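Protocol check, entry for the methods section draft. Step 1: assemble the input record (protein sequence plus ligand SMILES). Step 2: submit for complex structure prediction. Step 3: store the structure tokens unaltered in the notebook. Ligand used here: zinc ion. Step 1 record:
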Amino acid sequence: MTPLPHQHPPMPRDDLGYGAEEEEEEQKKSGASQGAKRRFDEFECPSCTAYNPVGDGFGNTDELVCNYCGVSFTALVDDEGRLKMKES
Ligand SMILES: [Zn+2]
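Step 3, stored output:
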């Protein structure tokens, strides 16, 4: 995970009093708000409970193989950014 510097999108803003922009910024701060687009860099094998770091990271529908027991899984990330592992 690379921390991003705080930045505003390079678009001209007209102050019409909308709160939508701020709300959006707020949601970006928590991983859960990324929903199904959330990325992970580790998973716990549901079969043998081994902890597997994933160097390149992974996200929804990515294939994963446990380094310890060799079982393969499909990563499923739901709308709330929760990771589920489905044996494939
Ligand atoms: Zn395993």
